[in-house]
């Protein structure tokens, strides 16, 4: 299961980061889910291996423009590409009404159905191999995190026990693995006795804008990966004031540490943070992405990642998580 | 006076062309006008020497998304950049209502006023050094061309006549040039007698989507440059059918020829046209931008240009027009 970041800037795009969008992929096929669609998301999709025809669902965390202004153009282009399959759109109140108003105002006729689902009551929503839950966050407008949990964990055969019980390797093993009872040596063998689940279901949480990471404490149980905004460092957050409803790196990191989260991916960086010290303009004092990294690293002992546009991460069955190398296209 | 193309694709962006947007610049300063703003226009502005703070006005040709879906994000970013100056938005019915609805739905609070002007009755609207007139076109929705005419042509002194009449070079010449009457050798000299206007006012027409170029015949009088869509070649247009409301290259070129237009710039090319034959995929038969060029060139004897993203053209006082070299940033 993979995450492909399509935008990692907050508020406005920069020359190296687009506004928020994240593709969530799985091993079942080309189908993918999109969390948020800031302006220019379809342009990022063009530069990726993704296709709008394979898009299974769009999940919108909140109504702010840097998370949704890419929706109308992306939907229009999906239509022009010949997509006919219905598209699920899970979003807070306001998005459906705005998209319908946009369709009417701009004469946008889509050759596929949009199936809107309100974020508020989303619990265990089946979405491909996932079961999705919405968690309400704290921001200037209603904002949600989406927890993607693997719906079905593929079991492994307990080959030691099969050997002990004298069950010969072959078709019997295959049927047991598929969950089918078999007969052997006059005995009925039940799959439950020969299957084990060594790995917990994979779980990834993708947060929207949020100034209270602790609201995710319960959802983080059994979660391997949290993607969360870290718009600022603590010093800048103090200057900006609490009214913006964003988190700073130290707060997110401390939260992740407190719940023992194994992997934390930070994103949604204010455009004021330069790419890194090496690329700074020489004008001296501007903060850099490295400042965000250092602040988070000081408060968190798990594996920390700062997302870039087109960064791709893979979560294995074993719970291991890390960047996938290779060209984006 | 310059044109800087920010998007030259119709319908959907491609890897090398964004959807429609065009900056109109002048010699008076950094102020500029934007005609249309497809999704990603603010991203193109980021890659250009333009600043959203200097934006004087936005003119929208029609409500289709590939001409306006970039407006909300561009306005939001202008606000985040600290712009406070009011912004004129000249647009057909529907755009103001949609932008107001978008503001409400996405909680977009702008620190500047938007001053909406309906395109329909726009006649001689002063816009910096320009006087702008809207011309109604033919498309699936109300669509307009905007004619930019230089409001004031700087006169030149008739130095021959001044010498003949014995008016000595110096302050007297300067005052006459400014349009002030002077006294010399007991006579009152009137500026009108010593000023000449060797060049006609510059005039550029930027069309919206349109399947009847002939609607621009009257407006093209005294016009040096027409920017017009050529979405298709004639063969593709025949396949697509007349319902789309677009022009093909041969029709636009024949119109330009019929009115003796000196310079024609084609844009808004269907994404099916590959960059050129050299870059084609080798799969053989796809049409190219060169096909559009060849079709137009066969019907038009004036100077023909096919716009690319970030192509920049300059119109001199003399009426000369052509590409400006130099890097876009």
Automatic annotation (TrEMBL), chains A, B:
SUPFAM superfamilies attached to this UniProt entry: Metallo-hydrolase/oxidoreductase (SSF56281)
The keyword Nuclease is annotated on this UniProt entry: yes
Residues holding Zn(2+) 2: 66-67, 209, 268
EC supergroup of this enzyme: hydrolase
Keyword presence, Signal: no
Cofactor(s), by name: Zn(2+)
Catalytic activity: Endonucleolytic cleavage of RNA, removing extra 3' nucleotides from tRNA precursor, generating 3' termini of tRNAs. A 3'-hydroxy group is left at the tRNA terminus and a 5'-phosphoryl group is left at the trailer molecule
Active site residues of this protein: 66
Cofactor note: Binds 2 Zn(2+) ions.
Keywords: Endonuclease, Hydrolase, Metal-binding, Nuclease, tRNA processing, Zinc
Sequence positions that bind Zn(2+) 1: 62, 64, 139, 209
Described function: Zinc phosphodiesterase, which displays some tRNA 3'-processing endonuclease activity. Probably involved in tRNA maturation, by removing a 3'-trailer from precursor tRNA.
Protein name from the UniProt record: Ribonuclease Z
Name of encoding gene: rnz
């Amino acid at each position: 299961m993979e995450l492909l970041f399509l935008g990692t800037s907050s508020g406005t795009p920069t020359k190296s980061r687009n506004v928020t969008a994240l593709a969530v992929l799985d091993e079942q096929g080309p189908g993918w889910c999109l969390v948020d669609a800031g302006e220019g998301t379809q342009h990022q999709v063009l530069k990726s291996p993704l296709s709008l025809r394979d898009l299974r669902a769009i999940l919108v965390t909140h109504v702010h423009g840097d998370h949704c202004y890419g929706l109308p153009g992306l939907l229009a282009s999906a239509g022009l590409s010949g997509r006919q399959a219905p598209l699920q759109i899970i979003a807070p109140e306001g998005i459906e009404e705005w998209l319908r108003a946009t369709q009417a105002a701009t004469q946008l006729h889509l050759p596929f159905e949009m199936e809107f689902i309100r974020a508020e009551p989303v619990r265990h929503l089946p979405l491909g191999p996932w079961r999705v839950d919405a968690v309400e966050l704290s921001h200037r407008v209603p904002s949600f995190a989406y927890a993607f949990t693997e719906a079905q964990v593929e079991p492994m055969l307990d080959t030691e026990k099969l050997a002990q019980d004298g069950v010969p390797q072959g078709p019997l093993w295959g049927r047991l693995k598929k969950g089918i009872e078999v007969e052997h040596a006059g005995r009925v063998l039940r799959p439950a006795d020969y299957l084990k689940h060594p790995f917990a279901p994979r779980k990834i949480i993708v947060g929207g804008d949020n100034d209270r990471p602790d609201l995710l404490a319960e959802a983080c149980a059994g979660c391997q990966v949290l993607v969360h905004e870290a718009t600022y460092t603590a010093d800048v957050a103090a200057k900006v004031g609490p009214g913006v409803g964003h988190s700073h790196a130290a707060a997110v990191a401390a939260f992740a540490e407190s719940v023992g989260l194994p992997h934390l991916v930070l994103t949604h960086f204010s455009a004021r943070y330069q790419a890194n010290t090496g690329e700074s303009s020489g004008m001296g004092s501007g903060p850099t992405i490295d400042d965000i990294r250092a602040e988070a690293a000081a408060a968190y002992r798990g594996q920390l990642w700062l997302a870039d546009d087109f960064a791709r991460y893979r979560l294995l069955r074993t719970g291991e998580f890390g960047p996938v190398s290779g060209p984006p296209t």
